[in-house]
Structures are given as C-alpha cells and as structure tokens.
Amino acid sequence: MAVKFPKTTPIEKENAVIDGVDISGHWSRMFEQRVIFEYTPELIEKITDLPDAESFAYCYQCAKCVPACPVDIVGDYGPRKLYKYAQTGTDLTQSPELWLCTTCANCLRVCPKEVNMAKIMPAAREQAILGGSFVPKELQDAFENTAKSGNPLGQPQRKRDAWIHSAGVSVPVIKDLSRPVDVLWYVGSYPSYHPRGMEAAFAAARIFTALGIDFAVLGKEEKDDADSQRLAGEKGLFEMMAEYNIQTFGKYEWKEMIVTGPHELNAFKNVYPQYGFDRPVLHYTTFLVRYLEQLKHLLKHEVNLKVTYHDPCYLGRHNGEYEAPRKLLAAIPGVELVEMGRNRENGYCCGGGGGGMWTDSFSDPHVKMRLSEKRAQEAGATGADVLAVACPFEVSRFTDAVKSTGNEHVSVLDILELLDRSMRGE
Amino acid sequence: MSSNKVLIIGGGPAGLEAARSAAELGGEVLLIEKRARLGGTPDSEGYAKLTHHWRDASEAMAELAAAVTGNANVEVKYQAEVQSLSGSAGNFTVEIAQSQNGKTGGVVESVNVGAVIVATGFQHFDPGRATQYYNYYSFPDVITITDLEKMLKENKVVRPSNGETPKKIAFIQCVGSRDRQVGNEYCSKVCCGVASKQAIELREQITDSKVFIFYIDMRMYGYWEPEIYWPAQEKHKVNYVKGVISEVLPKGNQLLIRGEDTTMSRPMEVTMDLVVLSVGMEPSAGTRAVAQLLGIEQNKYGFIEAGGSSGLDPVATSKAGIFVAGAASGPSDLDDSFAQAGLAAARAIASVRKVLA
Q1: Whole-number Å distance between alpha carbons of A68 and B250
Q2: What's the pLDDT at A14?
C-alpha cells in the first residue's frame, strides 16, 4: 500500500483564486471573522439535562483537555471546544463532532473539573439516535448486525465457535461439559470471527491448556457484550444484549470469568453490575500474570524482537491495568521492550473505542490521519519490530495503519500471540 | 479558675500579628511556636520579597517578631506544641510539650488560658500529586514558585540541570488548586499574584529573558491588580497566555510545554528553559493536628472551619473561646492574615473579659 502521508510543508501563496474568487492576502486576514450575534446557553442545557451528562456544564475553559485529546492531535477537537461550540450555536446532537470522540478518557485524566466525556457522549448520542438525527452509516450497520446476529461484524451466530476447530487444542464448551469449571472464558466477537482476531483466540486456548487451567467457553451461546454500542449511543441495544448475556452467564457454574478484550472487561466489570451481574471478571493479562512463574518455564524459545506495547484505553485508563501486559512481555526470552512517548496513563488511543471501531470512514474527512495511523507512526519511531496489543480491536486497526503509514516492517501482534510463539518456537 | 491569658498557636505572620494586637489591647499572651524561630512559612521557605510593598521578607518577618519578643506582655515558647486541651471558654487547661536538646516532649507543662487563637498556617501543594504530566520529580528544570523564590532571594536564578541562566521561562498556574481530581476545589488566592511578582523579579534579574504565565483565569483582586498585574504586563513585559499547560516533555536539553492558546484556539507546543509550577496552599500538618487536638471543625479540605454559627465572624471556630487567623482557615495573603489576626485578637480579649466580668 502506498504511503498516504508524505512529509509536506504548509502552503502559503501570494495569490490564490478558488472557484473564481480571489482570496489573496495574508492567511490570518483572508476571511472576515464571523460575529457572534447570540449566545445559546440552551444548547449547553440540552446536553446537561440528559442523565449522566451534567458535567458538560462544569467546563471553565482551562483547555488542559485539548492537547491531551487524541482527536485534536490529528484534527481540531477537544471537550472545551465542544462547550464553546454549544455556547455559540452548535447543537452537539446534530453535529459531526458528536461522533468523533472515542471515549478514551485522556481528557478526564487531566480535567480539574472532572468533565466526563465517556458519560456525556453516550448520553448525547442516544439523544441523537432517539431524535432521528444523522447516525454514521457504518455505525448503524454495526448496531443492526449486533441486534440481528449477536455481533457487530454481522457473522452468523451458529459460526461463533467455528474457530475452535482450528485452535490445535481441545476447547471445551461449557454446555457440553455439564460440570462446573474454574474459568469461563468469554472469547469476544472479534477473536471469534475476525481472521486476524482468531489468532489471539488460538494462542489463548493453547496457553490456557499448557497451564492446565480448567476452562470452558460459551460457544454458540456467546453474544457480543455491546459496551461499545452503548458508548456509541445505543443504550437500548446494549440493555437487550446485557440481559441475554447475564442470563447466559448465570446458567452455568464457574468461579471467575476471563475476557480477551478490555471492552468486555469494562462491560462486565463496570456496567453489567448496574443490571444485576456481580461476578469476578479479569482481563487475560491480569489473569496470566498470576501464572508468571509457571509461564516462564513454558516460554522456552527466544523471540528476538524489539517490542513496543500499546496500552488499550479500556484496559489502562478505564480499568487501571498497566503493568500486567508489560510483565508478560518481559517474561518472554529475547524480547526487548521499548516504550512509545505516550504510554500508560497518557497512552494514545487507537481510535477504536466508544464506537470508533465503526466510524472510521465517517471520521476521515475530519482528521488528517486516523488515530491508529498516528499511533502506528509513534510505534515505528521507536524502531520496534513488533507493536504488541492486548485488545482485539487493535490487531486489525493497526495492521492497516502500519501499512498506510509506511511502517510495514512493524508486525502487529497480540501479547497472546507472542507468548504462544515463545511457547511453541515458531 | 478563669484566666485572662490568650494562647496563640503558631509564630508565623498571623500568630505574630495576633500576639502583638492582643498585647496592645492589654492582654497577657503566651505564643507557642513549633520551630526554634519565629517568622512562619515566609521565613522557613526563604521568601524573597513580600507583597504588597515589596518588603524584604526576612527583614519584615524580623520586624514582626521583634514587636512580639520585645513586649513584656508576651511570653514566647519555642519548639513547643499543644498536646491536649480541656475546659471551656475563659477556663481552658492546655498541656504544652516543649522539646529540649532536640527531644520532643521533653517537658510537658499545664497552662491555664482564657482563649486560644490558632494560627498554624498552610503548606505548599506537592506537585507530584498533579494529574497532569508536569514531571516535577523527573525534570530538574521543572520547579515550583517556592523553589524559584529561594533562587530569587539569592539573586541567582539558574536552570538546575546545568547551572545556566534561563532565557525562556513559563509559569503554569493553578497547580493543585481549583482541581476536583486532587480534591482542592478552592482557589489558593495568592498564586496569580506571586507568579506575577516573580515574573517581574525575573525580568529585573535576567533582563534578556522572556517570561510567560499560562493561566485559566487571572484572579488579582485589591492591590494585586494595580501593584502587580498591570505593571507586570505594561512595564515589565511579562506575557500572559490564556490556556493552561497539559504536559511538560523533554526536548533536547529544553522542556517542551504542550497546551492550547484558547484565545487563538490553536494548539501550542513551545520550548522553555525553565518551567515554574504555581503550587497552591493546603492546610499545614500542624493545622490538621491542632484542629484534631482542640476538637474544632475542619472543612472538607482540612482547613479550620471559620465563620461561627452566624456565618458573619470570619475568625470564630466551632468552639467558643477558640479563634482562627491566617491561612489555617484557608488560603490567605499577608494582608488578609493580618486583618484576621487583629480581629481574632480583639475577639479573644473580649471573650476573656466577658468571662472575667
């Protein structure tokens, strides 16, 4: 794939004519400024009146959020700007800005007033959806797929467990076991269906087996957690999926649940409890570090690669897990771990959260590059051979992004895949 | 047994002024100070020049202390702390521990007093607790206004990393203040003025320097506006930029500050030689401890709750006969501390006389 972002310098011309209109002059004086004739506090209140969105009004325009915002870094965005737009005539529920936020919460990290876009955005988006405002087409498709097929990819439910046959080890389905298990492994939609996502599922199955863990999966009964759909504004759909999932989880006896993805972790740990589900849920990285010593004996083969790790927003900032993934990577013989400038609490978002997974085409005209592409450039700049991830959204996003930014030499691998390589010597 | 003695806890600006005022009103005063010296935070933290009037801090504190130590109605105990308090207004029994030869609690003495004024002050916010990446503990050239004050006092402002004179200096305002995440929602009142004062001093000491203040709101009331803010901008050419900094990153041997210039609505990434964090005020450890010992209410930030039941008495605490002055009840500048100290002295003397009458 050709590199999309050749290094360019800003254009400044003595004379410029666009569509027959001579717009020559100094850039800052090229256009007359638009006068603000009226302020619109009612458009701020339209947001703050929504449940969970009251903190939109807290902003005192300090602007710490703007440089922290991953969308502003590739465009022109930021919570404090949204507040001013609303104050000067923009109805957020009708504007494209509504769909650009990935709910990564880096703004919240620096916000002295605790304006929480991860709560404001879902509320405002729900309002837009209920009010019949514009919803990006690909996002609408993801909603419909989830409602119809139980996953945003639109794959048939009966094929949810098809990956099991290629895992190379036996993957027990809890329904067939008819006995309690220690670990219920919720695989997730992307590892179940996406060709690249499946690699992580295979690896996880092999690692769990090698560690002698008593685990099982839900198989054909598993459906999407729908947390990203909730953050994208489809609360009704989310509640429907949550009801189904909670009921399914309750059918079987298990001690704890392991999830492949941080979004599922967030759903089951932080949101499902509001709907009556209250069981221990762990991301696989947190789970596997418990077995670190045992794992080290299994990691027999050197993986001589320079690896940089991307913190998923919903594992790191939203759920506070920064060290387990790094400990796992450090345990792999031969791996040299290098950090990108933005890491841990300040990790840069891949663009996939909060429904961003399904709004790339919509967002493209509003940003100079995708967030995943910005991050791929940061990974490339470290000189790493591997961009290691711990979120099923990221494998496909970054695999595209390393290509489009001329960083094809950087392989995108889930930590599970790296562990598996060291275990099996491939 | 009723007592007309007024106990003042703390020998900083508020405590010294309260002692002087109470003595001048004819009261018998016992002033206790934890350190071996009077002068409070301006002395212990090595402040250079005070606002307002640009007095030399050491000289001004020595003058305040002399007015007290030279007064026959005032007894001063150094390295002394309250251990307990019992009784009620007009008749308190206070146990005071005085360390000797460096040993705390060497001598414990029981004293009968009629009223108490708490003047235990504040401490500077620890910038390591900021949720933004200012990297105070990582980069030597990120300092606080307190660190800078010490350098200004020596007339030798340098970049701690290499000893060179900084030519581009940025102040970041509201560090640890007006911040729900760190738990300090209040404004620390003095930092806008102190940063501006220091900016003026920097421009005087390093004439070819460029000095910037990045702020959310400049809050310069009273004398601060005509004496500090306007001259800083008009005469000393200090640059004020609305939009506070989100992170400080290394760039070569300089610091890159990232923020947004909000009036231009443009991202901003500028290199600086020195970054100064305008850290706010928090209740001192002494204020927290004394409030507990005396059993007086603190607000949610740990400052002593003032205002009394009427809400109209800024030096009353939740207990009759116990008064508060200065930064122990919340961020205060010197003028406010003196005004409160005078009022607390008057209230304490009146309270003692009412009981004795």
Answers
A1: 16
A2: 67
A64–chain B Cβ distance below 8 A for any pair: yes
Are B249 and A112 inside 8 Å of each other by CB?
Answer: no
| Amino acid making up residue A1 | M
- CA distances to A28, A265, A369, B37 from B56, rounded to whole Å, are 47, 59, 56, 17
* Residue A219, both tokens: 């198989």
Interface check B138 vs A, CB under 8 A: no
CB contact under 8 A, B260 and A63: yes
Interface test with B, best of A58, A64, A72, A73 (most B CBs within 10 A): A64
pLDDT at B100: 72
Q: Which residues of B touch A367 (CB under 8 A)?
A: none
Q: What is the reported pLDDT for B310? A: 86
Q: Topology of B5-121+284-356 in CATH?
A: FAD/NAD(P)-binding domain (3.50.50)
Residue of B nearest to A346 (CA): B133
- Measure CA B331 to chain center: 7
Q: Domain B125-280, what fold?
A: FAD/NAD(P)-binding domain (3.50.50)
Asked if A72 and B267 come within 8 Å (Cβ–Cβ), the reply is yes
The answer to whether B219 touches B192, Cβ cutoff 8 Å, is yes
Question: With 70 as the cut, is the pLDDT of residue A9 above it?
Answer: no
- Residue pair B228/B220 in contact (Cβ under 8 Å)? The answer is yes
Does residue A115 come out as left (phi exceeding 0), alpha (psi in the -120 to 50 range) or beta?
A: beta
- Per-window interface: A 65-124 vs B, CB < 8 A: 65-68, 72, 78, 80-81, 109-114
Whether residue B151 lies within 8 A of chain A, CB to CB, comes out as no
Give me the residues of B, 226-245, that contact A with CB < 8 A.
243-245
State how far Cα A190 lies from the chain centre: 12
Whether B9 and B332 have beta carbons less than 8 Å apart is answered as no
Query: Quick one: average pLDDT of B155-169?
Result: 97
Tens digit of each residue's pLDDT (9 = 90 or more) over B49-90: 998 789 999 999 999 999 999 999 999 999 999 999 999 999
Structure tokens, B199: 């900016």
pTM, rounded to two decimals: 0.85
Going from the C-alpha of A205 to that of each of A165, A184, A417, B255, the distances in angstroms are: 11, 12, 11, 47
pLDDT at A25: 59
Query: Residue B357's pLDDT is what?
Result: 61
Q: Domains along chain A?
A: 40-130 (1.10.1060.10), 142-289 (3.40.50.1860), 295-424 (3.40.50)
Alpha-carbon gap: A345 to the closest alpha carbon of chain B (Å): 10
Q: Is the dihedral of CA A355, A358, A363, A368 positive or negative?
A: positive
Answer whether A60 touches B (CB < 8 Å).
Answer: yes
The answer to whether A27 contacts chain B (CB < 8 Å) is no
- Positive or negative CA dihedral for B103, B108, B112, B116? positive
Distance CA A394, CA B105 (A): 62
